[in-house]
Amino acid sequence: MSLRPPRESVVDRFLRYVRINTQSKEGESRTPSTESQWVLARLLVEELRALGASDVRISEHCMVYASLPGVPALAHVPPIGFLAHVDTSPAVSGDAVNPIVHRNYQGGDIVLPGDPSQVITVEQHAILATMIGDDIITTDGTTLLGSDDKAGVATIMTLVDMLQQNPDLRRGTVKIGFTSDEEIGSGIEKFDVEGFGAKFAYTVDGDAPGEINHETWSARLATVTFHGHSTHPGTAKGVMINAIDAMASYLTQLPADMRPETTEDRVGFLHAYGGTMDVETSTVRIILRDFETAGLNGKERLLRERASALERAVPGLRVSVDVIEQYRNMNDVLKDYPQLTEFALEATRRAGLAPRTRPIRGGTDGSKLTFRGLPCPNIFTGGQNFHSKLEFNSRRHLEKTTETLVHLVQVFAEETR
Ligand SMILES: [Zn+2]
Q: How large is the C-alpha radius of gyration of the chain?
């Protein structure tokens, strides 16, 4: 069956959304953490209404909800949801994103014109070899692209567009959700699972085309605080306990083979990513990641043991380690819903891609939703190099992602009896 095309191409949508700065910000108590996320969220509300979606609303926490009622004959098909987050990572500037479309890519490294030191190399990106003839979308090298997760937003919006242009498609009700503050981990708490109304959902927030994720890290955050003793450095002998030095020696004693840059696949890590430094008190925030709870426990134990050892080595120094759980491996729940992954793989196959599953070395909004009763695997977006100036995606990747979503709503209807 050949489908009528969307009113607007997924690439045009994507290019419009990435130009809006929606960086979230750590350490803010309100949701959304930044005003700028409202700009994109409100635009999406307008666009959903213009496309004829039902029950379009936006919450006080910048969560957008919409519904596309299914054909009446398929009322028995459970409502299926699609989610993407509007914010981008605080790690790299998202201000004045200037997307560049490299048309009809013919191979070779891609030098980003705004900062020629930023190069997407063939050596580091095997995927480039599969992208000959494609239109590759990068930044100018001075910001992130925000494909994470505006690729998800753009493909879901194009799904809505496609379903509206093709009302005869046999499908159940589709629910749409756009969330804020995913990158800082706090937004999804404010998502109204009940009001959303889907029985199952998918986040569209993954990477390589064809990849479905039903497994995420289990994740904890440790805040390690070094309590020293400050004094005038001129009269410090035998008195000062420098919390900065203590923190430095703590960090250098953590195993080098347990870092993000030395691990891959199913191997977890410890990652110190921020903190504060003062002689009196220094703190470092360290994330702990592992697919297995036992592995995570081991990493937490290591942090505590090294803290005690340092206290013993430096008289007068006190080191406290506070650990909180961030999210859990969603496969603990999704293993009971294998059909969700199967349906996504089948839709991927129908889109002409090579379907496969991969554990995701990160978390998704879906991890938390899954534990809140909304089972939620993750679907690729085609994006690469998230949270980086080298982030890229492409016309074909965005189109194939959209096509997969359109197939998925049909597979879901076919397979539900
Ligand atoms: Zn994301």
A: 23
Measure the CA–CA gap between 335 and 337, rounded to whole angstroms.
5
Say which residue the tokens 């002998």 belong to.
237
**3-state SS, residue 96:** coil
Q: Among this protein's residues, is 182 annotated catalytic?
A: yes
95 is a catalytic site residue: no
CA distance 409 to 174: 8
Non-local (6+) Cβ contacts of 255 within 8 A are: 270, 302
| Dist. CA 148 → ligand 1 center (Å) | 5
Say which of 47, 87, 183, 399 is annotated catalytic: 87
CA of 149 to the centre of ligand 1 (A): 5
Residues 168-196 have pLDDT tens digits of 999 999 999 999 999 998 899 999 999 99
Catalytic residue among 148, 161, 182, 215: 182
pLDDT tens digit sequence for 269-309: 999 999 999 999 999 999 999 999 999 999 999 999 999 99
The Å distance, Cα 182 to ligand 1 centre, comes to 7
> What is the 363 CA–ligand 1 centroid distance (Å)?
9
- Which pLDDT tens digit goes with each residue over 212-270? 999 999 999 999 999 999 999 999 999 999 999 999 999 999 999 999 999 999 999 99
* Spacing, Cα 87 to ligand 1 middle (Å): 8
| pTM assigned to the model | 0.86
Element containing residue 220 per DSSP (H, E): strand 218-227
Paired sense of beta strands 211-213 and 356-357, if any: parallel
Q: Which amino acid is at 91?
A: A
Q: How sure is the predictor about 416, in pLDDT bands with cuts at 50, 70 and 90?
A: confident
